[in-house]
Structures are given as structure tokens and as C-alpha cells.
């Protein structure tokens, strides 16, 4: 059974940093791209960032470029999202995901091939 478990969310002040983790099991995740989406209250789920199998290719939505960094440690089956200079508009439930087919991660960016989802971790940024 494939599982993705997020951790690291919490309540922070604007300008603070958080690092989210996504631990995978039940699959050889290092063969597949992974990524992060988020869903703010009253809004649709949106793409945040994606990374290819090796970590050599990354994608970010414009709203987080320069502030968030996605990485992965395939030896630990874990992906990370380092979030710096957090803003109140970053408040959301953050979900990690994994692609179903081999690819660069663009298929996650375009929400075309997301095979597995975690249950999410809440990030709240107070102003």
C-alpha cells in the first residue's frame, strides 16, 4: 500500500520559516517525480512545486519562487519543502503527491499525472 505522510506544518508569524517533509512508503519513490500542492480556505487546490526523480529539475508557482525550495532524499524516501519569508497568503493545507509515470515533474505541475496524495499538513501564517 502506497502512503505519503506530510509533517512539519504549524502556526508561524509572517517572515518566519518552516520545513515540510513528505515521507513515502510502499513504492520506489525515487523513480518518480513528486510535488506539493496547497489548498487555502475557500479556494481550490493549487500547484506549489514539483521535483523530478533525481532532484535536478524543479518547478515552482510564481507566488513562491525565491522563497520556497523543494528537495528530496531518495535514500530516505522523503521530500522536503523549505518555506522562507512566509506570508499570510501562504496559509493553507499543504499536500504532497507522487506521479504515476516517469517524467520530469511537469506532469505534476500541470496536474496531469498525480497518482498518490498525502492527507496534508496545515500551515498557518499570522500577520
Describe this structure in words.
The chain is mainly β and 127 residues long. It has one helix at residues 106-109; strands at residues 3-7, 10-13, 18-25, 34-39, 46-51, 58-60, 68-73, 78-83, 92-99, 114-117, 121-126. The strands form two sheets. Strands 2, 4, 5, 6, 9, 10 and 11 form a seven-stranded mixed beta sheet that branches. A four-stranded antiparallel beta sheet has the order 1-3-8-7, with no helix packed on it. The termini are far apart.
- Element pattern in H and E: EEEEEEEEEHEE
Distance between the first and last residues' Cα: 40 Å
Q: How many strands appear in the DSSP assignment?
A: 11
Rg: 13 Å
Oligomer: single chain
Largest sheet: 7 strands, mixed
Structural class: mainly beta
- Fraction of helical residues: under 10%
> Treating each run of at least 4 consecutive H or I residues as one helix, how many helices?
1
- Report low-confidence residues grouped into runs of 5 or more: none
Shape: globular
Percentage of β-strand residues: over 45%
Overview in brief:
With 127 residues, the protein is mainly β. It contains one helix and eleven strands; from the N terminus they run E-E-E-E-E-E-E-E-E-H-E-E.
List keywords for this structure.
127 residues; mainly beta; seven-stranded mixed sheet; four-stranded antiparallel sheet; 11 strands; 49% strand; globular
List the helices and strands and how they pair.
Elements: E1 3-7, E2 10-13, E3 18-25, E4 34-39, E5 46-51, E6 58-60, E7 68-73, E8 78-83, E9 92-99, H1 106-109, E10 114-117, E11 121-126
Parallel strand pairs: 2-11
Antiparallel strand pairs: 1-3, 3-8, 4-5, 4-9, 5-6, 7-8, 9-10, 9-11
Amino acid at each position: 500500500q502506497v502512503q505519503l505522510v506530510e509533517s512539519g506544518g504549524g502556526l508561524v508569524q509572517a517572515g518566519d520559516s518552516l520545513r515540510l517533509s513528505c515521507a513515502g512508503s510502499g513504492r520506489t519513490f525515487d523513480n518518480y517525480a513528486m510535488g506539493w500542492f496547497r489548498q487555502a480556505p475557500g479556494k481550490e487546490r493549487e500547484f506549489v512545486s514539483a521535483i523530478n526523480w533525481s532532484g535536478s529539475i524543479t518547478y515552482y508557482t510564481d507566488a513562491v519562487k525565491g522563497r520556497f525550495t523543494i528537495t528530496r532524499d531518495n535514500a530516505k524516501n522523503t521530500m522536503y519543502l523549505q518555506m522562507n519569508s512566509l506570508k499570510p497568503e501562504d496559509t493553507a493545507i499543504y499536500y504532497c503527491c507522487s506521479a504515476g509515470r516517469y517524467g520530469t515533474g511537469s506532469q505534476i505541475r500541470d496536474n496531469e499525472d498525480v497518482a498518490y496524495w498525502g492527507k496534508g499538513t496545515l500551515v498557518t501564517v499570522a500577520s
